[in-house]
């Protein structure tokens, strides 16, 4: 689904030449995307984000030294930050594998080379976890929302070290269209599409769930060997995608795995 959006671009209150340059580059990049109706550069002056939203509710990307932040409303910016993934990374250091890592590890050892498509990148935290846990994994992070794709890919590139940067590719697309067009078969397709049942205010994905839409996932996805799906335990997706569910008694979010028999044969 293509939704056209406008966007405003500005800098942090304390700006320097590098931030102005980033705003200018962003203007040209975003103006070239068909889903962006109009990109406008605005002067920040000393305005607060709240003031910038008083007259006009068009989303704003604010360029700061730590990376760009996307505001759909004044209070909850979308930007690359690890948040609760820090807890998973700590566990990983102690060899306690977070569930996604554990599932991948069962099929491919920690040192193995494989390709992993994160079809619903969002904040990019799961992509980050895979890059971190599997030093030989190549990650394709696909996001359909052009503004989220833009800020998260820039923020993440700024945060990643050289090796991790060389192992990730950011793609602005609908993952279904993208993967079906690939010539090569990827080892893993991972989906965390965020369905209605998971959308509540206490959900850490809060702002993302407010501004993105859930997608209709078809059974006709091709070019992957194994699919891992994360969804609400009541989601129809497990059945639709033939996924065997890993039951987690303590969480409403379940993971499932399905093997693409057409490829395995
Ligand atoms: C729950 S978030 C994913 C969070 C992510 N796993 C993380 O670790 O940050 C879902 C994201 O998938 C994106 N999305 C939904 N359907 C998509 C599709 N068909 N193709 C690409 N991205 C999609 C949404 O725009 C949203 O940003």
Which short descriptors sum up this protein?
single chain, 265 residues, alpha/beta, Rossmann fold, 2 domains, 4-stranded mixed sheet, 11 strands, binds S-adenosylmethionine
What does this structure look like?
This protein is α/β, with parallel strands linked by helices and 265 residues long. The chain has helices at residues 17-31, 49-54, 85-93, 99-107, 125-133, 146-159, 162-166, 175-180, 206-211, 237-240, 261-264; strands at 5-11, 36-41, 60-64, 67-71, 114-118, 137-143, 168-172, 186-191, 224-232, 244-246, 253-259. The chain has 2 domains: 5-71, no CATH class; 85-264, Vaccinia Virus protein VP39 (Rossmann fold), CATH 3.40.50.150. Strand 10 (244-246) and strand 11 (253-259) form a beta hairpin. The structure holds S-adenosylmethionine. The site of S-adenosylmethionine has 22 residues, from helix 5, strand 6 and helix 8.
